[in-house]
Amino acid sequence: MTGKISFDFFQRVGRSMMAVVLILPLVSILMGLGGVLLNPSVQELVPFLAGNGWQVTGELMQRAGQAVFNNLPVLFAAAIAITWTGRGMAGFSALIAFVIMHTTIGALLDITGTQLNERMLGTELGIETMQTGVFGGIWVGFLTAYLYSKFHRVELPDAISLFSGERLVPIIASFGGILSAVILFFLWPQVGQGVLALGDFVATHTNPLIVGLYGGIEKLLIPFGLHHIYNTPLLFTEIGGTYTTLEGARIVGDQNVYISQVIDRLKDGSVDITGGQYIAGKFIPVMFGLPGAALAMYRVAQDRRKTKVKSLLIAAAVTALLTGITEPLEFTFLFVAPVLYGVHAVLTALAFGLMSALGMHAGFAGGSGLIDFILFNVLPHHSNAWLVTIGLGLIFAVIYYFTFRFLILRMNLKTPGREEEGEETKLYTKEEYRSKKGIVSAGKEHPEEKNNRASEILKALGGRENITRLDACISRLRVGVQDTNQVDEEKLKSLGASGVLKVSDGIQAVFGTKSSVLKEEIEELL
């Protein structure tokens, strides 16, 4: 496998996990609100919430949210198969393979009488089996996607032609599930013990230097779209720690453990918070650091361009502060002054390390912004971590401001508002910002305008013949192309992209949260 193919592969791996990752914030908020309704302290302040109706509502919200966390492995399996192939039949096949794999593992355990560590045993969809966790789901997802790509166009003899094409894939996936079960039955006990041991070590030997490196590296991987591969093991698997809820559910991953412990602590104040040790520092650069950087970029902009710059930077800074979505702001300086992004990564690492050194535990459901900060840190009030976050955050805001200001002036960096004479400051108009953020004014956009926009973007990408793959994440179009030289970067920017990054055999165009809509529009033209 060439380096180009390998890099492209890992980009697609990260994107394929987003379907599950993106649903977790909503689910966690559902659980959080349910926990608030069940919290005795809240009921004392608001007596009518003690009524049976509110208590039933809170319990239903919590159980509905917990169901998603309890079934993350099968969700990863189906989501990866579907997003990798773009076909629902692949997801259906993954579900079949997942069920058969765990049923077979359970049968092998019964037949052989194999004795395993209790932590290695559990249930998946009600099937008593060996705990392979999210790793098992990811394996099934990619295996099924591979099998789909190999067999979905196979034509069988006339006598059995009914099972040709896509109908053949679930059958092949069934055998894939059986084979996977046999392999995992012999290999996973050793691998699983290693994963559990690593998780125990991580939980009891948290090193601020390691935590800081984790945060810095994650930030450096964001421009390449590889951060989801990097952080998934820590956030969503046993490597990030394990926890058994008050209801007996087994939760894995630093982020998931933190959310579940916060919810349980609302019911039982004796529950210790051990999760959130690797992600506690994320609020600082997002809620405080980047707004400080935005202020610095505004202050050093040319006076005649400050009006144009201000609307973009204020809106992007507020977006980061409230929701934790940082890419719109980060990409305003990433492409014109990469050194600033490097400094941002270093300061992010420092924030992560400091919070770890202080023994703080904090977390979020999806975005590390003010909404999650209040819902999962301030309101539960399980410690003074949120106060420490605010204190350190204000210090980091000052550090970001003066560091960015000094570097921009000293190195004469062409940040927004400091472009050369005659260069268009095209990112800072209201309509371009609204397009980048995915906000459409009522009555301003018609179907024919949508088609025209998609058509123009397609032309800028080199036309249909140049497209090999089309994907989208939260803020970017990810496009595989035959020839990157045919991509018109300036045209894409004029159409609303805040940046264009050529990577391997593809490009990433930053259109903000409207990227997924643009993907659908372009797909209609392919």
Structure, described:
The chain has 22 helices and 8 strands. Helix content is 62%, strand content 7%. The chain has 3 domains: 51-200, no CATH class; 217-411, no CATH class; 451-525, Glucose permease domain IIB (Gyrase A, domain 2, 2-Layer Sandwich). It is globular, with a radius of gyration of 25 Å. It is α+β, with helices and mostly antiparallel strands. Helix 3 (24-38) packs antiparallel against helix 5 (52-70) and helix 10 (208-221) runs antiparallel to helix 16 (338-357). The model is unreliable at 1-5 and 424-449 (pLDDT under 50). It has helices spanning 3-16, 18-21, 24-38, 40-45, 52-70, 72-85, 88-112, 133-151, 168-204, 208-221, 227-236, 254-267, 283-299, 306-323, 327-334, 338-357, 370-378, 385-410, 430-436, 447-460, 489-494, 515-523; strands spanning 121-124, 127-130, 242-244, 250-252, 467-472, 476-481, 500-503, 506-510. The longest helix is centred in the middle third of the chain and has 37 residues, at 168-204. A hairpin with a 2-residue loop joins strand 7 and strand 8. It has a 4-stranded antiparallel beta sheet.
